[in-house]
Amino acid sequence: MLNKKIIIDNIKTLFYALIIALIIRSFFIQPFYIPSSSMEPNLLVGDRLFVTKYSYGYSKHSFPFSPPIFKGRIIFSEPKRGDVVVFKTPADNRTDYIKRLIGLPGDEIKFIGSNLYVNNNEVFKSRISQNDVIFCGKQTIEVFTFKENLDNGKSYNTVYLKNFPYQDSDTFKVPDDHYFFLGDNRDCSKDSRFLSSVGYVHKDNLVGKAQFIFYSSDRSIGSIFSFWKWNKSIRFDRFFKRIL
Q1: Could you tell me if 53 and 29 are in contact, meaning their C-beta atoms sit under 8 angstroms apart?
Q2: What is the rounded CA–CA span in Å between residue 114 and residue 128?
Q3: Are 86 and 49 spatial neighbours (Cβ–Cβ below 8 Å)?
Q4: pLDDT tens-digit profile of 67-100?
Q5: Which of 12, 86, 192, 209 gets the most CB atoms within 10 Å of its CB?
Q6: Total domain count, the chain
């Protein structure tokens, strides 16, 4: 009888722990892993970060497996231009992407001569480095690094290939209740410029706002179990780094 009681108590404890974890994950904060280089130099492959779920209110995508428990978005708070946001891609409403919010509903976005324009106003950027090498998938590319400054005072680093292959674009008119996202690695990012795969993102697809990195490692050097390589594989300088 004693063993049976212990087993039942352990099951109850595990059940309550799972419920608490589900509540925290759905309503407050959720960890995410960066699998691609589309947000370099600000987010690296191997970064693990916390995303606040309450920043923009809640939709079905706030919960695991996106259950259709209600329609629309409740307790909605408008995201700000320049926020780094996790969202579900419109193509399948399942895959998590993380990009920087550039276009708000009604905005017009375009590139002219590799310069970004929002509502016919050029987004000012200043070159801060011309000898950087970053990843694009498994390849390395030579880039110029710029500090980009939005009209609301938000600033962050972006990178462009040295030969500026992405010169001009069509004008992207952001529909009502939708947003336009770009990767900071401008020539190595599948984002809202690709209308057939990402395109404009509805506000219901927003998952949360990226806040800070809590752990980072370079898995190309070694896994977490290769403790003898921790001094090289773990990026201690990125721990608890705020995401701008």
Answers
A1: yes
A2: 16
A3: no
A4: 999 999 999 999 999 999 999 999 999 999 999 9
A5: 192
A6: 1
